[in-house]
Amino acid sequence: xxxxxxxxxxxxxxxxxxxxxxxxxxxxxxxxxxxxxxxxxxxxxxxxxxxxxxxxxxxxxxxxxxxxxxxxxxxxxxxxxxxxxxxxxxxxxxxxxxxxxxxxxxxxxxxxxxxxxxxxxxxxxxxxxxxxxxxxxxxxxxxxx
Length: 145
What we know:
Layout: E1 4-9, E2 14-17, H1 19-25, H2 29-32, H3 50-57, E3 63-71, E4 77-87, E5 96-103
Antiparallel strand pairs: 1-2, 1-5, 3-4, 4-5
């Protein structure tokens, strides 16, 4: 599975945090276990998800969905579709919610390959045709100073 999965108990404390969630947000399962989900500082507007979780906990809806702009741990922006589902045994009260977080326009990155958002230092000072270099001179040698 390539989606982040988070399980919250009825008090909205993190009970399960899968590896994909750790990859997306930069926090490991051991760091977030038994932490209030809405107190987490991750690249996702968790407060925007509160109405979904609250509605699920009171049984108002079984499933709801919201798409947000997010920023992964590498600083790359992407759209994140979050599906909130009521967590209820076959017979009994609601015991929590599950959040499925799907990066809908973020390519899967092999951790062995460089992040494309990170510039290659070997080409940073290579002149290109036209434009202004980061050193304040026109490409082609003319100075702005």
